[in-house]
Amino acid sequence: MFRACAVALSLLCATAWSAVSRAEAAPPPLSAYGALPSISGVTLSADGQRLAFISVVGDDRRLVLQSVSGELLATIALGKTNIEDLIWAGPDDIVILASVVSALPEFGNRKRVFWTVQSYSLSKKRLLQVSSKVPNAIGGVFDRPSVRVIDGEGYAFVRVITVNPSPRFDLARVSVKDGSVSIVDWSPMDGLGWLIDAQGRAVGRARYNEVKGNWSAAVRQGALWPDVFTTLAPLDSPYLAGLSREDDGLVVVVPGEDGVEYAKVGYDGSVSAALPDDKPVHTLIVDPSTSRVIGAVNVVDSSEYRFFDPVAKTAWASVIKSFPKSRVHLTSWTPDWKKVAVLVEGPGNAGVHYLVDLAGRKADIIGDAYPKVPAEAVADIRPYSYKAADGLDIPGYLTLPPGREAKGLPLIVLPHGGPAVRDVLAFDYQAQALASRGYAVLQPNFRGSAGYTPAFKAAGYGEWGRKMQTDLSDGVRALAKDGIVDPKRVCIVGWSYGGYAAMAGVTLDPGVYRCAVAGAGVSDLKRFLSWRAGRSGDSSETVRTWNRFWASSDENDPRLEAISPTRQAARADAPILLIHGKNDTVVPYEQTTLLANALKKAGKPVEVVTLEGEDHNLSKAVTRQQSLEATMAFLLKHNPPD
Questions:
Q1: Mutual angle of helices 497-507 and 467-481, in 10-degree steps
Q2: What are the helix and strand counts (H, E) for the chain?
Q3: For residues 623 and 581, is the Cβ–Cβ distance under 8 A?
Q4: What's the domain count of the chain?
Q5: pLDDT band per the 50, 70, 90 thresholds, residue 1
Q6: Nearest Cα to 575, choosing from 514, 524, 498?
């Protein structure tokens, strides 16, 4: 059932504030922040009559199906499986995409993340394993499935590896009702996948020869696949984003030194601009039911959506007008744009899912993302920019502790992962948890971060462990100069690349931090590059990308030693807490062991927390909570906020 909060669309559904002031309220328990979002994957059926989402309690996931009026139709226990997406296949069937970590002999018994596909039928009240129905398939599926309704029946189009007798990619069409399979097409192992149009036809596909750097896009002409677009891309290879909004070609995203080109490659091989304007684009909006590109998102501080279709454009304008001074994120919509599902967050709001009925002029609350974080506990987050030592402008975000004056505060520097991603103005459970205990939190978008200009991203090349690192400590100095923080009460906390930055903060950039918490970080660049090459090949784009960031030629480049915390462990000038999941397939657990051993050998203080069964993304509630509690205990010990 929906929570009782239906509002007129011209008004904001304001979050109720507690009568207790921020200064007096006790902070919520860490479990309120460390829990996985209680609701995710909200999606509307095409007819606008049904709603599906994942409900999470602890590590247990449940698929919830209900009518848009709030009538519960079904709840299905899915266990502790990581659910990645939900897709309706008609009004009766829902497709469930999940991820699992497995070590299969066909993949050298190395742990890898595989995707699996199931479907649930409301009328038959049963789950069906979809991806396992494909004959001779190994592993799982290798893309988000395209789901289409053809002549009233739902089908999932999945890309799998089969052995026939040699390995190849097959595109299989699987009925979500009975699991019957037909092979639509196949490609060699350098295939990157297919685009499926609204009628369920494979109309475009791409291939990439990593060794030579050759990328190509092809269109279907009868039984043939002639190339219509080719380019040399040893780094930053293009990708197929979707079909053109006119449905007369492919949309190819082509990164380059001067920015990203969005090209429409017609079925006849003609090339033209894919977008109607040259406004900034962070990502494209693709209709999952047709593969058509229907809009774009630009990120300044938060997501700004624009749509090419006038109906969608008008509908979205009405939606965002209903939630002033809030950040509105699109999660699902009906083809006629009469119903839209959104996640809304902002001041005093940790995230609320709404079902917006534009025709009925109302918005119903589906549920809260973090129901145990009350409005008065949501810390203020604001943009904060400063200059690096070389004059480069560094944007970022500052979260301030509730009820405390922004003066002389203890600080946690929280660099993002990637590194070629960015932080945005949004509720961040780690930053909010830290702020709830009295810390200011700086999330800098250091050079090398994506989402700004090509020059800003390129400024990070060769600066890993160098200017990318001092960009962080320059932020500390800027905040201290502004009087906001006490420069003698600073620690650094990070995950993935942020974990590396935390390690490097106390080994390569001394005298700044009282302690460091490093999660799933790379500590020995040579060993990591060797491991990565063993999985994807010496000539893979992934290896070339790391060499570009590190300004290295290969795994034996002597320059890697100077920016490897493990090799510089004797320089550590503050205690380090290392946290890592044993099921990490992105950064191997070995990287934590290497640094821990080096620090112990050098007589430096180090603690290690091992997250059993956890992956690189902190996908499990119990280990996410374990990580947060260990982090907070370490910070309170070495950098108490009071």
A1: 70
A2: 11, 39
A3: yes
A4: 2
A5: low
A6: 514
Same domain, 368 and 388: no
**Could you give the CA distance from residue 522 to residue 566 in angstroms, rounded to a whole number?**
9
Q: Do residues 474 and 580 share a domain?
A: yes
Task: Find all residues with CB under 8 Å of 232, minimum gap 6, and list them.
Answer: 213, 214, 215
Peptide bond before residue 454 is cis, with ω within 30 degrees of 0: no
Q: Mean per-residue pLDDT for 163-182?
A: 92
Rounded average pLDDT over 449-477: 96
The span from the CA of 297 to the CA of 423, in Å, is: 15
Which token pair is 290?
A: 């047709």
Residue pair 467/478 in contact (Cβ under 8 Å)? The answer is no
Same domain, 386 and 461: yes
Residue whose structure tokens are 């993002």: 416
Contact 28, 377 (CB under 8 A): yes
What is the residue whose two structure tokens read 């699992």? 100
**φ, ψ (nearest 5 deg) of residue 463:** -110, 10
- Please give the order of strands across the beta sheet that includes 50-57: 39-44, 50-57, 60-67, 72-79
- Residue 609 reports pLDDT greater than 70: yes
Structure tokens at 321: 């007008």
Residue 112: count of CB within 10 angstroms of its CB: 16
DSSP E strands, 189-338: 191-196, 202-209, 214-219, 227-232, 239-243, 249-256, 259-266, 271-273, 283-286, 293-299, 303-307, 327-333
Residue 191: alpha-carbon gap to chain centroid: 24
Q: How far apart are CA 421 and CA 403, in angstroms?
A: 31
Name the 3-class secondary structure at 280: coil
Instruction: Pick the range with the lowest mean pLDDT from 134-148, 215-229, 349-363, 450-464.
Output: 134-148
pLDDT of residue 3: 57
What pLDDT score was predicted for residue 542? 86
Per-residue model confidence as pLDDT tens digits over 472-509: 999 999 999 999 999 999 999 999 999 999 999 999 99
Q: For residue 491, what pLDDT is reported?
A: 99
C-beta separation of 572 from 602 below 8 A: yes
In this structure, the dihedral spanned by the alpha carbons of residues 475, 477, 478 and 479, taken in order and rounded to 10 degrees, is 90
| Residue 367 shares a structural domain with residue 402 | no
Instruction: Work out the pLDDT band at 218, boundaries 50, 70, 90.
Output: very high
- Pair (361, 482) in one structural domain: no
My answer on whether 368 and 434 are in the same domain is no
Burial grade of 444 (CB within 10 A; 0-12, 13-18, 19 or more): buried
pLDDT at 376 over 50: yes
With b for 16 or more beta-carbon neighbours within 10 A and e for fewer, the 449-488 pattern comes to: bbbbeeebbebbbbbbbbbbbbbbbbbbbbbbeeebbeee
Would the pTM count as exceeding 0.90? yes
- The range of the structural domain enclosing residue 11 comes to 1-80+309-378
pLDDT in tens, 147-161: 999 999 999 999 999
